[in-house]
Write a structure and sequence with these properties.
This protein has about 100 residues and is of the alpha/beta class. Helix content is about 35%, strand content about 20%. The N and C termini lie far apart (about 40 Å).
Length: about 100
């Protein structure tokens, strides 16, 4: 039986690029070394499941980040990453600074 929620809090971490995001999310989400570090691989991991035992053992994945760097308003790569999250089975919560 899966636990309800996996909460990954990345606030306070420097996330300027997609590579930074994967660097900081890999360990708490149990991403294997061979896991692709791109949006398609991330989408498969959080939607289809079957790649990360950590994510698969939870009903819901919630990732908290600061609104800076990759997640600054208007950063197109950050917008593309945010769109991968569906808001139901997996959510990205962007916290405003200050």
């Amino acid at each position: 039986m899966a636990d309800k929620e996996l909460m990954v809090d990345l606030r306070g971490r420097r996330i300027e690029t997609l590579r930074d995001f994967f660097r900081v999310v890999a360990e708490p989400c149990g991403l294997p070394e061979w896991h692709g570090r791109n949006l398609d691989a991330w989408s498969d991991t959080i939607h289809s499941r079957g790649i990360s035992e950590v994510i698969d053992s939870h009903d819901l994945l919630v990732v908290h980040v600061d609104q800076q760097g990759l997640f600054n308003e208007g950063n197109q790569v950050g917008v593309a990453l945010a769109e991968v999250f569906d808001g139901e089975q997996n959510r990205l919560v962007i916290h405003r600074s200050g």
